[in-house]
Amino acid sequence: MTITQIIYWLELTGVAVFAVTGALEASRRQMDIVGFVLIATFTGIGGGTVRDVITGATPVFWIRDPAWVITCIGSAVFTYFTAHLVERRYVALIWLDALGLAMFGVTGAAIGLNLGVSPLVAIILGTITATFGGMVRDVVCNEIPLILRPEIYITCALLGASIYVIGTDILSLPRAPVALIAFLCSFALRASAIWFKLSFPVYRARPGREY
Amino acid sequence: MTITQIIYWLELTGVAVFAVTGALEASRRQMDIVGFVLIATFTGIGGGTVRDVITGATPVFWIRDPAWVITCIGSAVFTYFTAHLVERRYVALIWLDALGLAMFGVTGAAIGLNLGVSPLVAIILGTITATFGGMVRDVVCNEIPLILRPEIYITCALLGASIYVIGTDILSLPRAPVALIAFLCSFALRASAIWFKLSFPVYRARPGREY
Amino acid sequence: MTITQIIYWLELTGVAVFAVTGALEASRRQMDIVGFVLIATFTGIGGGTVRDVITGATPVFWIRDPAWVITCIGSAVFTYFTAHLVERRYVALIWLDALGLAMFGVTGAAIGLNLGVSPLVAIILGTITATFGGMVRDVVCNEIPLILRPEIYITCALLGASIYVIGTDILSLPRAPVALIAFLCSFALRASAIWFKLSFPVYRARPGREY
């Protein structure tokens, strides 16, 4: 399997996984089937859309290939009919989100490097791809965005993207194993953050005043 | 009148109508004249801007032709001086929004087909064009977005876009009458939804828990 | 110093200044260092990113040149370690925001004119560049957006952009001094608005009803 295929399948799985988190959020808000499809699609393809738009890779990926949208719609419909089987839907949402986060951090950075951007920018593109879809999901559904909660979140996408960029672009290691290692490290960090409630020290000086 | 002209006039009317809904929302929030112009412009050209950006049709339509922005500014100023004459401004907003929704669903799909995208993607582009401007209006003004309310809303844009795409692209019927029929069906569905409070069954299993 | 260099340095200073306002907001919300960098970067490069995307100048400016992102990260880290020295952080935020607003209004309009858009659209591009970053900062941090507060705000960006466009494109005056004058007028208006709580009359007819 070539690196292009690995990236493609990681990305497709990531889209499906993020779409399911969007549909789970829709189920928590008791929306109808159209709301499920809408939120699932926003979440699944939101990050990649922003990445494509700011790099000028337009028309964006899901316009060139309808498979992506079909994946989101399928995930939404599947979740609509099975979500009641999941005992703790918010926990499922958090863990699937962690999976998608780790996948998109790596694929976003890889796509950035393929476009020939600098290493720093490739890392940022990976982070944007990984975090934007979930941010839209949370803002539209009036949830506190995961990126603003105290547990380590963005840093996991940053870590995965950084390992991939440093490993392939700077150390010139073979791309497929580096992609796998980057994904695993990223997911492991997020899993630890969820499990042990890991967080960075916050700015404690004093809260804001209104003047 | 050619199909291009019909699309142009439907689109221009849709922009003006959506701009007025934005200005009515600004009047409900008691903003100043600059706020009226800002919200009216966001609402009027927001959906088409997103459509152009993701399809790569940049510079976006209102940069290539200043008529669109002038239409929005004119609608905002007109509404600023006449909104007090409308007894029930929220009702006016809802019905004008329904009109714009039906127009943009058809024109968005038509513009998508002209760009050569697949039928499924053309339907999605129509739906995005029709719903995005109103969503921005509601988010910026802290209103619950119409797309998240229980009544049938997005489905109306989906219906209009689908009729146009199936009629012209798949059945190869003449485009002008199909555009008109698609617009009328879309508006009729939304009108019924407003009038009879039509809604799809929501996901009832149980509300979300915080864990 | 040529006009291109003046625009570049105004823009770089504006990005740094806006990034600091984002980091100050993060300090008021007691975020961690990653939150500081994230909000600072959104605020610093948000307006220019939207300007580049809708005019089709992609890849956007900070992808072509990593200096912009490094500036944002540096501003965020600097603020993280010094914000506790500022007695009244919200006041600092408001005044730095005024500085950035005046800078970006002029540079946004100048970049628009360089792309060959019409004068009206150049003024709008300047206004978007100046206001969008701050709007994203406020929405993400759950602050009431400055653009929706009663004091004169957007109009200051409109004024700076208009003076620059009218002076250089219509009256054909030399660009460097016009840019400086436009910046000073814009900042002076915003400073007066903050100091004397200047505002336009709001729409007073009556507040909105729910029907």
TrEMBL record, chains A, B, C:
<feature type="transmembrane region" description="Helical">
    <location>
        <begin position="178"/>
        <end position="196"/>
    </location>
</feature>
<keyword id="KW-1003">Cell membrane</keyword>
<feature type="transmembrane region" description="Helical">
    <location>
        <begin position="90"/>
        <end position="113"/>
    </location>
</feature>
<feature type="transmembrane region" description="Helical">
    <location>
        <begin position="33"/>
        <end position="54"/>
    </location>
</feature>
<feature type="domain" description="Glycine transporter">
    <location>
        <begin position="8"/>
        <end position="83"/>
    </location>
</feature>
<feature type="domain" description="Glycine transporter">
    <location>
        <begin position="95"/>
        <end position="166"/>
    </location>
</feature>
<dbReference type="Pfam" id="PF03458">
    <property type="entry name" value="Gly_transporter"/>
</dbReference>
<keyword id="KW-0812">Transmembrane</keyword>
<comment type="similarity">
    <text>Belongs to the UPF0126 family.</text>
</comment>
<feature type="transmembrane region" description="Helical">
    <location>
        <begin position="152"/>
        <end position="172"/>
    </location>
</feature>
<keyword id="KW-1133">Transmembrane helix</keyword>
<feature type="transmembrane region" description="Helical">
    <location>
        <begin position="119"/>
        <end position="140"/>
    </location>
</feature>
<protein>
    <recommendedName>
        <fullName>Glycine transporter domain-containing protein</fullName>
    </recommendedName>
</protein>
<feature type="transmembrane region" description="Helical">
    <location>
        <begin position="6"/>
        <end position="26"/>
    </location>
</feature>
<feature type="transmembrane region" description="Helical">
    <location>
        <begin position="66"/>
        <end position="83"/>
    </location>
</feature>
<dbReference type="InterPro" id="IPR005115">
    <property type="entry name" value="Gly_transporter"/>
</dbReference>
<keyword id="KW-0472">Membrane</keyword>
